[in-house]
Design brief:
Length: 145
Amino acid sequence: MTVLNNQPDSEMSISTPDGIELKNNDERINGLLQAWKKSEENANFEAEVRSPCTGGIDKSTFKTYAAFKTQLAYLFGRVGRNAVRNPMVVKAKAGQSIILSLIIGLLFQGTGTDFSYSGAQNRNGMLFFSVVCLAYLTKFYISIK
């Protein structure tokens, strides 16, 4: 059969759902083009082309919205699948977090319960440093092969 390389084949004949007999690829292609022109998808496509949305994405372009619980379930499911697929990455991330926590704890070990201005600055510095380090910790990907 010579359909894949688009050469006319005198032995091939295809019937359409309307009962029209198509003898060669040219007739078949023309039949497909005519069916596309009559389809609802083509009408929707042409309507979008005639009046494009130039203001970016707005709420009218979405038909349905996923609820927050649904989005959260998908995200946790994806993270869970990645953890099952790569258990060494999970262990490496846990070790990285523990080591970083110990370093931060040792740096700010002597702050004590000093309620003066310098003690408050020390605690705020420790909290800021912890948050920044943990935020950047998620950006570094550990590749284990």
